[in-house]
C-alpha cells in the first residue's frame, strides 16, 4: 500500500474510531435525556419550562463569550501541541474562573433592582453558569488532548446524575423548577470532578510557570471566535427571547419544547461534529485533504437529509409520545426547526475547515449576517404568525449562513458536490413540511413518497463512504489481531 493510500486509510480510521466513541457518549446521554421529556412536560408548567429554557439558552451565549472561547482554543492548540497540554489547561481554567467571578458579581449587583422571587432565579443562574462553564471547558480540553474516553465518561456521568437527581427532585421531593435547575448544577459539577480526576488535572498544572506566549496565542484564537459563537447563538436562541417578549412565557415554553424532536437530529450532528473537528485539524495540511473533505461533506449532507425526512414523516407519533397536555401543539413547529438543524450542521462542518486554517473571521461574517437576518425576520414574522414565524425565520437564516460558509471555505478547499441535487433535496423536505403542517388530504401518503425519493437520491453517497469507513476499521482491527 502506497504512502498516500496509507494516509487516506488512517484518516478514515481516526474519524471512525472517534465517531464510535462519541456515539456511545451521545446516544447514551441524549437518548436518556430525550426519554425524560415526558417527565418534564408532565411535571413542569409551560411557564416554568419557559423560564428554564431561557436560562439554558442564555448560558449558550454567555459561556463562550465570557470565557473568550478558551474551550475552543484548548481543543485547537491541544491537538497540535501535545507537550504544552498542562499549560493549556492552566491558562484555560484561569479564564473560566475569571468569567465565573464576573457572573457572580453581576448577579449580586442585580439584587438591588429585582424582586425577591427573581433574586432566587438569578442565584440559580449563577450556580448554573459556574458549573456549566467548567464542564464545557473540560469537555473541549480533553477532546483536544485526544482523551476521548475521558470525554465519554464525563458526558455519560453527567447524564446519569441528571436522571437520578431529576427523579429525586421532581417526583420524590417535588421541587419543580428549582429541582430541575439544581439537578443540572449537581450533574455538571460532579462530571467535571470526575474528568479532572481521570485526567490527573492537578498533576498537569502543578508548579507550571506562566506561559505568556501560549496564552497570547490562545487568546488571539479564542477572542475573535466571539463573533462566531455569538452569531451562532443568535441564530439558535434569539427567537426564544422574541417569542417570550411578544407572545409570553407560556407560548415560549411550548416553542422551547418543540426543539426536543430536532434534538434527535442534533444527537447525530453532535456525534459527527465532535469527531470531525478533530479530523479536520489533523488533516487540513494533507495533499488529498480536498478529496477527504468532499467525501465527508456529501455523506454528512445526505445522512442528515434522510434522517430529517424520516423525523418529519413521524413527527405526529413522536410528539404524541413526548409532549403531554398543552405541550402537544408544539409539533407544528418541528418540521422547519428540523430543516434548520441540517443547515446548522453543514455550517459547523464548513466552519471546522475554516477554523483548522485558523480563519475565524470568515465564520464570524457568515454567522453575523445570518444573525442579523434571523432577528429581522423574527421581528417581522412573529407578530403575524406567532411562534411559527420564529421557526421559519430560524430555518431561513441558517440556510443563508450555510451558503456564506460554503462560499468562504472555497478559499481553502473546493468541495466537488452537486449543488443542484442538494437544493432539490432541501426543497423536498420543505414540501414534506408544508404537507404535514397544512394537514392536506393523504398527507402521510404524500410524505412517504417524497421521503422515498429523498432516500433514493442520497443512498449512493451514504453507501460509498460507509464502505470506506468499514474497510478502514476492518483493516485496523485485523492489524491488531
Briefly say what this structure is.
The chain has 481 residues and is mostly helical.
Structural account:
- The chain has 481 residues and is mainly alpha-helical.
- It folds into 2 domains: 1-19 and 229-481, no CATH class; 70-222, no CATH class.
- It is 85% helix and 0% strand.
- The protein is built from 20 helices and no strands.
- Helix 16 (334-356) packs parallel to helix 18 (387-409).
- The longest helix is centred in the C-terminal third of the chain and has 38 residues, at 443-480.
- The radius of gyration is 22 Å and the shape is globular.
- The mean pLDDT is 85.
For the structure shown, list the relevant keywords.
mainly alpha; globular; single chain; 2 domains; 481 residues
When the domains are counted, the total is: 2
Please state the oligomeric state of the protein chains shown.
single chain
Query: What is the number of E strands?
Result: 0
- The low-pLDDT segments are none
Give the biggest sheet.
none
Strand content bin: under 5%
Series of H and E elements: HHHHHHHHHHHHHHHHHHHH
Helical residue percent band: over 70%
Question: Secondary structure elements and their pairing?
Answer:
Elements: H1 3-35, H2 37-43, H3 46-66, H4 70-80, H5 85-110, H6 116-144, H7 148-172, H8 176-198, H9 201-205, H10 212-222, H11 225-247, H12 249-258, H13 262-283, H14 289-313, H15 315-322, H16 334-356, H17 360-385, H18 387-409, H19 419-437, H20 443-480
Amino acid at each position: 500500500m502506497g504512502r498516500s493510500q496509507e494516509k487516506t486509510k488512517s484518516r478514515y480510521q481516526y474519524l471512525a474510531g472517534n465517531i464510535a466513541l462519541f456515539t456511545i457518549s451521545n446516544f447514551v446521554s441524549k437518548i436518556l435525556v430525550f426519554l425524560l421529556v415526558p417527565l418534564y412536560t408532565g411535571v413542569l408548567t409551560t411557564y416554568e419550562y419557559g423560564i428554564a429554557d431561557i436560562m439554558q439558552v442564555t448560558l449558550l451565549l454567555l459561556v463562550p463569550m465570557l470565557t473568550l472561547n478558551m474551550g475552543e482554543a484548548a481543543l485547537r492548540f491541544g491537538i497540535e501541541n501535545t507537550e504544552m497540554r498542562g499549560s493549556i489547561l492552566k491558562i484555560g481554567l484561569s479564564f473560566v474562573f475569571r468569567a465565573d467571578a464576573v457572573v457572580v458579581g453581576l448577579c449580586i449587583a442585580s439584587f438591588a433592582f429585582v424582586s425577591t422571587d427573581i433574586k432566587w432565579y438569578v442565584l440559580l443562574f449563577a450556580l448554573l453558569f459556574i458549573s456549566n462553564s467548567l464542564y464545557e471547558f473540560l469537555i473541549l480540553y480533553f477532546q483536544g488532548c485526544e482523551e476521548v474516553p475521558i470525554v465519554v465518561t464525563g458526558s455519560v456521568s453527567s447524564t446519569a446524575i441528571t436522571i437520578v437527581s431529576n427523579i429525586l427532585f421532581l417526583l420524590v421531593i417535588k421541587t419543580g423548577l428549582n429541582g430541575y435547575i439544581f439537578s443540572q448544577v449537581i450533574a455538571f459539577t460532579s462530571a467535571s470532578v470526575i474528568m479532572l480526576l481521570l485526567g490527573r488535572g492537578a498533576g498537569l498544572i502543578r508548579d507550571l510557570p506562566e506561559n505568556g506566549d501560549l496564552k497570547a496565542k490562545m487568546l488571539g484564537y479564542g477572542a475573535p471566535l466571539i463573533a462566531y459563537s455569538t452569531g451562532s447563538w443568535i441564530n439558535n436562541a434569539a427567537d426564544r427571547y422574541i417569542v417570550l417578549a411578544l407572545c409570553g412565557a407560556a407560548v415560549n415554553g411550548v416553542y422551547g419544547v418543540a426543539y426536543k424532536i430536532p434534538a434527535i437530529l442534533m444527537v447525530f450532528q453532535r456525534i459527527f461534529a465532535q469527531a470531525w473537528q478533530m479530523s479536520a485539524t489533523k488533516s487540513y495540511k494533507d495533499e488529498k485533504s480536498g478529496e477527504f473533505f468532499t467525501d465527508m461533506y456529501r455523506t454528512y449532507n445526505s445522512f442528515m437529509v434522510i434522517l430529517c425526512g424520516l423525523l418529519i414523516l413521524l413527527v405526529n407519533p413522536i410528539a404524541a409520545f413526548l409532549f403531554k397536555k398543552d405541550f402537544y401543539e408544539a409539533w407544528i413547529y418541528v418540521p422547519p426547526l428540523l430543516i434548520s438543524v441540517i443547515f446548522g450542521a453543514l455550517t459547523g462542518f464548513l466552519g471546522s475547515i475554516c477554523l483548522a486554517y485558523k480563519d475565524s473571521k470568515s465564520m464570524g461574517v457568515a454567522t453575523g449576517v445570518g444573525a442579523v437576518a434571523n432577528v429581522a425576520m423574527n421581528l417581522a414574522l412573529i407578530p403575524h404568525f406567532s411562534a411559527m414565524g420564529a421557526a421559519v425565520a430560524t430555518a431561513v437564516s441558517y440556510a443563508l449562513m450555510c451558503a456564506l460558509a460554503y462560499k468562504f471555505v472555497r478559499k481553502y478547499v473546493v468541495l466537488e458536490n452537486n449543488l443542484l441535487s442538494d437544493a432539490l433535496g432541501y426543497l423536498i423536505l420543505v414540501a414534506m413540511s408544508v404537507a404535514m403542517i397544512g394537514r392536506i388530504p393523504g398527507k402521510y401518503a404524500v410524505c412517504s413518497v417524497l421521503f422515498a425519493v429523498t432516500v433514493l437520491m442520497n443512498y449512493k453517497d451514504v453507501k460509498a463512504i460507509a464502505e470506506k469507513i468499514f474497510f478502514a476499521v476492518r483493516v485496523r482491527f485485523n492489524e491488531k489481531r
